[in-house]
Amino acid sequence: MADPITPVLTKRWLSPKSWTIQSYEALEGYTAVRKALKGTPEQLVQLVKDSGLRGRGGAGFPAGIKWSFMPPNEDKPHYLVINADEGEPGTCKDIPLMMADPHSLIEGCIIASYAMRSHHCFIYVRGEALHCIRRLNAAVREAYDAGYLGIDILKSGFDLDITVHAGAGAYICGEETALLDSLEGRRGQPRLKPPFPAAAGLYAAPTTVNNVETIASAPFIVNGGSDWFRQMGREKSPGPKIYSISGHVEKPGQYECPLGTTLRELLDMAGGMKDGIPLKFWTPGGSSTPMFTAEHLDVPLDFEGAAEAGSMLGTTAVQVFNETVSVPWAVMKWTQFYEHESCGKCTPCREGTYWLAQILERMVDGKGTEEDIDTLLDVCDNILGRSFCALGDGAVSPITSGIKYFRDEFLALCETNKRELVGAEA
């Protein structure tokens, strides 16, 4: 494993005015795009395949393979869409990256667009991140003025325009096809697949949707090479990763480490548990990933390691909770979020999240019964794998994992209710 404190993606973040093109160019900025434009699109796609770069938005699909799905012919426009709609609870890696180093994303967009023969790139940013949108727009203007965007970039014959689009704040628009519908001006709801975006995406044209961190990794791969990139992380999940750590730690924030870093190592970097209160439970990739406990401190946080331990890496939104937190209460709060954010398109998610929230609210209020636990699991079973998109699957993860590891806490709420009923009858 590479030295966890050697910065790659975050190496410019603390530089003076790191978001300006002057600071970016002074620190190897826009050197990779010159190198990339001298090669062919096929060579770039192969380079990214060889690097083993996997999507940093949650699913972990190999980026090079995703790029190769784009058709080689240009009878229709090709589009690159950047998913910067960072809405997963606990996730805060893409907005800091765009705030501190927007030009790394722009350079990555140029490289990826050239590799996929796209001449128009859209960056879809969460609408609440107003300062981030302004900074991105300013960086795009700087790139146009410097000749990195527009017509005949660096006299290579390649043209590219970038549009920064502000979303309207719906969590569902983090799902790639719902994002495309929103970008087209329609209500953000997931589309039926197939056809997949690579065949019929934005405006029914071939489209690739990638996460901010995925695309921002491209310039480093072009400059360093695939072998260098593979020196970090693990064999099947190579490269560096930005881990967002929040909750009961002394120093919450973004920590860049090689993939496969454990929570024990991350806690050391974050100054340990806040006020010394022991760890109780945590999420490896946001609230839509099954929770872990203190027994999972040494699970390698990469795509395979998290899956083997019964969860998912997700967006590496590490939310840390100490022993003062009630698991049913935390699960209820997450479920209320998913109920609110369900787009309503499919019945399992629309109705299921409503009933899950109702039952949990009643239990936390001390009015639950032991049968409620079985009802929760039954409703979860009817949502998992049956909803239109992954929001439904994500909504049941906190509940099923919470009951798996902390069933006694749910039972305690039911026992409280039993005692109250007995007292009332007496």
Automatic annotation (TrEMBL):
Q: Name one GO biological process term.
A: cellular respiration
What cofactor does its activity depend on? Answer: [4Fe-4S] cluster; FMN
Q: Which domain of life is it from?
A: Bacteria
Which EC number(s) does the record attach to this protein? 7.1.1.-
Question: Which residues belong to any copy of the NADH-ubiquinone oxidoreductase 51kDa subunit iron-sulphur binding domain?
Answer: 328-373
**Record's InterPro entries?**
ComplexI_51kDa_subunit, NADH-UbQ_OxRdtase_51kDa_CS, NADH-UbQ_OxRdtase_suF, Nuo51_FMN-bd, Nuo51_FMN-bd_sf, Nuop51_4Fe4S-bd, Nuop51_4Fe4S-bd_sf, Soluble_ligand-bd
The reaction(s) catalysed by this protein are: a quinone + NADH + 5 H(+)(in) = a quinol + NAD(+) + 4 H(+)(out)
Q: Which UniProt keywords apply?
A: 4Fe-4S, Flavoprotein, FMN, Iron, Iron-sulfur, Metal-binding, NAD, Quinone, Translocase
GO MF: 4 iron, 4 sulfur cluster binding; FMN binding; metal ion binding; NAD binding; NADH dehydrogenase (ubiquinone) activity; NADH dehydrogenase activity; quinone binding
SMART domains linked: NADH_4Fe-4S (SM00928)
* Function in brief: NDH-1 shuttles electrons from NADH, via FMN and iron-sulfur (Fe-S) centers, to quinones in the respiratory chain.
By sequence similarity, the record places it as follows:
Belongs to the complex I 51 kDa subunit family.
Cite the PANTHER family for this sequence.
NADH DEHYDROGENASE [UBIQUINONE] FLAVOPROTEIN 1, MITOCHONDRIAL (PTHR11780:SF10), NADH-UBIQUINONE OXIDOREDUCTASE FLAVOPROTEIN 1 NDUFV1 (PTHR11780)
Q: Which NCBIfam families match?
A: nuoF_fam, PRK13596.1
The name under which this protein is listed is: NADH-quinone oxidoreductase subunit F
